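Researcher: Next entry in the queue.
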Amino acid sequence: MGTSTEASLSRVERRKARTNKRLLEVARQLFSEKGIYWAKVEDITELADLGKGTFYKYFDSKEQIISALVEEGLSELLAKTEAAVLAVSTDGRIIPNVIGARVDFFLAYPDYLLLLHQVRGLMQLQVGVAEELRVIYAKHLSRIAKLVKPVIGSTSAHDVAVAIAAYTSGLMTYHLLFEGIEGIRRRRNELVLALDQSVQALLKAGRPRA
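Model: Structure for this entry, 210 residues:
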């Protein structure tokens, strides 16, 4: 009986995991296509072919699924960035590798790029979800700051982390909107070089640590 119960629970948990994943994938697609302000819970459940009640078993609101997507995306991005830093042969490659990891992540998941572009605006608003998003994003920047700290000289590690995140997202979003994903994929190395040069200019300015 115990084994049968455990197997049954396992199937239930697997089904729940699939449903949760489906909702996140569909929401990410819709937020990229329609925007986080215009996509509705009903749009998510319709595209996912699930009942509205099912959505609320997993998420309390549209804002909560936005937070879950941001946390999921930044966690995956951080893992790829940390792996890229571990692969460096010299400290001088840390920042280019951090930038390269971000560029490659957004090239693989352009919908995350557009989601984070919208979320940056949402974080400026004085609404409940904005604070939660700011906390998630601040933790991500803190981890990036630790990765670049060995090579920043007299500049604040936090300043450099913010610059890398902002420069990368800003430049790639601009080119994505005007050139499309295939256009910026062909220019991957050019983008990494341009972003690295922008960050190096910040380092040369040598601002005191915050």
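Model: The CA atoms of residues 11 and 208 lie 56 Å apart.
Researcher: Noted, moving on.
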